Amino acid sequence: MTLYFPNMAEPAGRTLGDEETAALERVIRSGMLSSVWGTEARALEREVGELYGSRHAIACSSGTAALHLSVVAAAPDPGDEIITTPITDFGTVAPILAQNAVPVFADVDPSDGNLDPDAVAALIGPRTRAIMAVHLFGAPARAGKLRALADEHGLILIEDCAQAWLTELPTGRYAGTAGHVGTLSLQQWKHITCGDGGLTITGDDELARRMRLFADKGWDRAAGRSHESLGLNYRMTELQAAVARAQLAKLPGVVAARRRTAGELIEALRGHEGIVPPRPDGHAWWLFPLVLPGGGAPELAAHLSAAGIPARAGYLKEPLNKAPLWGGPIYGTSHYPLDGYRPAACPEAERLVGDTLLIIDWNEHYTSEHVAAIAEAIGSHPQSRSRIRH
Question: Which end of the chain is less congested by CB atoms within 10 angstroms, N or C?
Answer without folding.
Answer: N
